[in-house]
Amino acid sequence: MSTNDSRPSSQPPFWDERYAANEHLFGTAPNAFVASQAHRIPKDSDVLELAAGEGRTLAWLAKERGATCTAMDFSQTALATAEQWAREYDLPVETVQADVRSWTPDRQWDAVIVTFLQLLPDERPDLYHTIRRCLRPGGLVIGEWFRPDHLTGNYDRLGPSTADRMVPVDEVRAAFADDEILRCESADVTLEEGPLLRGEAAVVRLVARRGSRAIVHNEAQS
Ligand SMILES: C[S@@+](CC[C@H](N)C(=O)[O-])C[C@H]1O[C@@H](n2cnc3c(N)ncnc32)[C@H](O)[C@@H]1O
Predict the structure, then answer these.
(1) Helix (H) / strand (E) containing 182
(2) CATH level 3 topology of 14-221
(3) What is the SS3 assignment for 32?
(4) How does DSSP assign 48-116, residue by residue?
(5) pLDDT single digits (tens) 78-111
(6) Ligand 1 near 75 CB (within 6 A)
(7) 78 lines ligand 1 (CB under 6 A)
(8) Which of 46, 58, 118, 195 is the most buried (most CB within 10 A)?
(9) Considering the chain, what percentage of its residues have pLDDT values greater than 70?
(10) Is 60 close to ligand 1, i.e. is its CB under 6 Å away?
(11) Whose CA is nearest to atom 23 of ligand 1?
């Protein structure tokens, strides 16, 4: 796995400082796309969010869908807020501090969420393998990323500053080709996700159900 990226924005201190400097960087409401697809997640499921930040989406899934949640992120500052919300509202949300580029999950979940994670192209194949590996057969992934034409089209200046942290729709479709893809689309949307993600945006949205085919690459690695 590629973990040698030395850009400050790829390291926990960059994100710790951002979370410390802003109250609720991405708001307190859930990610709008995940919320719109949450009816597909059976009640009382266990749900993992990769790069969950403060866990806004998981807190909502726990309250509204009775989900038992795992919030994974490499920012301890963000996870501290997730833990505070879990205590305050008595929510079943546990946290895992880890770098998704080197994390090896030791269990599986009914659903995996990932929203606006900004990995580089050579890091993303492992992300897709990790998502599939975290899912039970039949489990659901719901994802949203900026796509590269966000930087060249008529959109607001928000999201990653470089196109290599944005995700082409064909890449996502190919990564989940062995699964049942329920939605995989480019969308032009108005984001209202806290002070940093507010405005017109070009995104890719994914909903897929993991197939029963073995994940040979990952199983060979483990
Ligand atoms: C744009 S924020 C989105 C947070 C959350 N998904 C949301 O929508 O509220 C990106 C998050 O990814 C986390 N992150 C970035 N790179 C990571 C990595 N390699 N491993 C784990 N977390 C990472 C950051 O700490 C940050 O919380």
Answers:
(1) strand 180-192
(2) Rossmann fold (3.40.50)
(3) helix
(4) EEET-TT-HHHHHHHHHH--EEEEEES-HHHHHHHHHHHHHHT--EEEEE--TTT---SS-EEEEEEES
(5) 999 999 999 999 999 999 999 999 999 999 999 9
(6) yes
(7) yes
(8) 58
(9) 93
(10) no
(11) 51
pLDDT beyond 70 at 220:
no
CA of 73 to the centre of ligand 1 (A): 6
Residue 219 structure tokens: 């199983």
Look up residue 185 and give its two tokens: 């689309």
Give the domain ranges of the chain.
Answer: 14-221
What's the CA gap between 41 and 148, in Å, rounded? 29
Residue nearest to atom 12 of ligand 1 (CA): 51
> Is 31's C-beta closer than 6 angstroms to any atom of ligand 1?
yes
Q: Is 145 in the pocket of ligand 1 (CB under 6 A)?
A: no
pLDDT score, position 213 = 64
Distance from Cα 75 to the centre of ligand 1, integer Å: 8
Q: What share of the chain is helix, strand, coil (3-state, %, to 5)?
A: 35, 25, 40
- Looking at residue 23, its pLDDT comes to 86
For residue 166 the two structure tokens come to 């944005």
The pLDDT, as a whole number, for residue 2 is 45
Whether the model pTM is above 0.90: yes
**Cβ of residue 101 lying under 6 Å from some atom of ligand 1:** yes
CB 48 within 8 A of CB 112: yes
Is residue 38 over pLDDT 50? yes
